[in-house]
Amino acid sequence: MTIIKDNVAWRTFQTWFEPVKAVGLNDDVLTLQVPSQFFYEWLEEHYVELLGKTIKRVLGRVGRLEYRIMMESSSSKRNPPASINLSGSLHNKQSRENNYVDMPLKWDDPHNIKTPYAIPGLKRMQIDPQLNANYIFENYVEGECNRVARSAGIHVAQKPGATAFNPLVIYGGVGWGKTHLAQAIGNEVRRLHPNKSVLYVSAEKFINQFIDHSKNNEVNDFIHFYQLIDVLIMDDIHLFVPAVKTQDVFFAIFNHLHQSGKQIILTSDTAPRDMNGMEERLLSRFRWGLNADIQAPDFETRKSILQVKMRQEGLEIPDEVVKYVAYNIQSNVRELEGALIALLAQATLNKKEIDIDLAKRVMKNFVKTAQREMTIENIQKMVCDYYHVAYERLLTKTRKREVVLARQITMYFAKKYTKQSLKTIGDHFGGFDHTTVIHSCQTVENLMETDMEYKENLLELQQKVQLASI
Predict the structure, then answer these.
(1) Which residues, 6+ apart, have CB-to-CB distance to 337 below 8 Å?
(2) Which end of the chain lies in a sparser environment, N or C, as judged by fewer CB atoms within 10 Å?
(3) CB-count exposure of residue 365 (10 Å: 0-12, 13-18, 19+)
(4) CB 53: neighbour CB atoms within 10 A?
(5) How far, in whole angstroms, is CA 111 from its chain's centroid?
(6) Could you give the C-alpha distances from 359 to 30, 345, 452, in angstroms and in order?
(7) What tens-digit pLDDT sequence spans the chain (470 residues)?
(8) Alpha-carbon span 224 to 444, nearest angstrom
């Protein structure tokens, strides 16, 4: 070990050589005991040349190397550990494939294995990816709110581990589609690269697994299992903040996967820069790849999400109802889908057609829409937001074109969607009289007949005002 220690970094020696023990020397064959098959494979892949030179130096040209893999079960106090011997590849160049174990290692009590997906230490194993088959790209609606994240996800799925987006950190508010996108990447990887192992796990489950393995002194098996994954998808990593020991373990797993060219996909409710309490060394690694944020879905995206859900369920709902639901639920995709399910349930149970009246009754359980009355102030703010005009400027008598445009349209909508008099409408704009309101409404109607771009913008804005007034 002294020779090896002089030829590798101290951290590398601690990680990969201190756990290895020399347990036998017979007929120029040195037997090394390693904690798992993963250890054997790592040494053979990365340090076989160093080991070969060391064996030759100590035992001469005839020296050979064997490995003994020791697997400790949780019942090791009652039963001896299982083991298997494998020859090293120091002197023969046959494929390392011949050294893999195709069958489970012998366990005295296999029921005591704690890893929930597979027996740790096996190279060839079937891993349940823990993915929802419905979370695919075809069902993930693209919009301005998620375009960058979705595009990056497709890129990662096509070339997992081989892009600059490693890790890919997807962050955004609750119910904005982070989990759907992350699992869509996993499902697409499985479709395009069936030989790659993919695993989705929530941070909460990962923490609980780590605690269980720590109690049973099986942390090494826990780490080695995760280091075998080709594409690791970790959901809600912000939950690691109070779990300091879990951060240390994930740091080791992250480093190994990244250095091995494996893909890491993480989701979080907050951006990495805002994860106060997360170790800086982890945060710096989260910034290695791409941090892609997902925003709250806009109206058009929410409407498209409902339409996709309707196609999946084989539903036909009037367009005005779809728009009404999409307008009123603005923050959470899950609530959006929940409203659609509630609407269908009410229509089915009560044997009624799905219309605006039914939608208004159902929506009372999701948002406060009852007795809502459209006000001039509401319209002013909607128009100012649409045309990017400061609300305060709308109340002045300036003749600047963009302000006049917004003022005329606001007066037009105020007359159409409120019960206020012309004089009251004029008063809300800093004291214009009723003739100015009439002139503004006539100007809007004339421009709609002569200017198609103006008309398209007005109809788009009118749709928002109509939905807000229902």
Answers:
(1) 305, 309
(2) N
(3) exposed
(4) 14
(5) 33
(6) 77, 11, 33
(7) 778 877 777 767 777 788 888 888 887 788 888 876 667 777 777 777 888 888 888 888 777 878 777 644 333 333 434 444 445 544 433 333 333 322 222 223 333 333 444 444 444 456 788 899 989 998 888 888 888 999 999 999 999 998 889 999 999 888 888 999 999 999 999 999 998 999 999 999 999 888 888 888 888 888 888 888 999 999 999 998 888 888 888 998 998 899 889 999 999 988 888 888 888 888 888 888 889 888 888 888 888 888 888 887 777 788 888 888 888 777 677 777 777 878 778 777 777 778 777 887 777 766 554 345 578 888 888 888 888 888 888 888 888 888 899 999 999 988 888 888 888 888 888 888 889 989 999 999 899 888 888 888 888 888 777 776 66
(8) 69
What tokens were used for 377? 């102030």
Q: Which residue has the tokens 């367009």?
A: 319
